[in-house]
Amino acid sequence: YWTQTITNGITSTTSAAATTTANSNRTREPAERLEKFILKHIQNCTQHVKRMAENKILLARAEMEEHKALEVFEQIASPT
Known about the structure:
By secondary structure, the protein is an all-alpha fold. It is built from one helix and no strands.
């Protein structure tokens, strides 16, 4: 009797654990896909913001060089 009860208990526990693992895998896979999708989206947005910031820096440098050239021109062109 005890052998049958213990064996049946172990079998049902093992099958319940296997079912739980299968269910968690089914839930985990879509969650991992969603996580990867969100991560790619964040990386894409971050790269876009980085490119915009780099372009602003390049534009500011060009404007600074133009301003310096204008100051030099004004000094040369102004009569003393």
